[in-house]
Amino acid sequence: MKRGIKIILLSMLGSLIFMLIFAAAAYLAITYKGNLVSKVISPVMESDLITSKKSDINSMPEKADLQILQLDCIYEGFSNKFSHHAKYLGLVKNNGEQAATLVKINVDFFDASGRLVGTDSTIVSGFDIPPSQTRSFGDIATDLLSDFDECKARVSSI
User: What is the pTM of this model?
Assistant: First the structure.
């Protein structure tokens, strides 16, 4: 009997959480009246591949050769507020002869005039990147100064 009551209470709690999320989404939709701005920045072309810089950290062999294969950046922000953020997702490949560990990627965001409007960093997913293998990276950059027209990624430390 007690188990049945617990299941019912958990079910009710789940329904309540769902209703709160739905109500918050409806509130935002009414408040901002569809002023959500969204655009996708074109991915980095193969001719624009970026090669990593070597780091002073001794966690990587000297023969490290990391390459950003792809970078997709999506701008999202409310046009009537000072809220600008971006989602980014990319791929990095290890062209070296040994596994790369703890690879950190910096992503810079620039406006149409080339002014830096924000930067973010993330650690590549997975524990290491074996030779000739790729790994994904991605995150959400918050507190951008404004909308952006270009994003660039680089390996900042390894």
Answer: 0.59
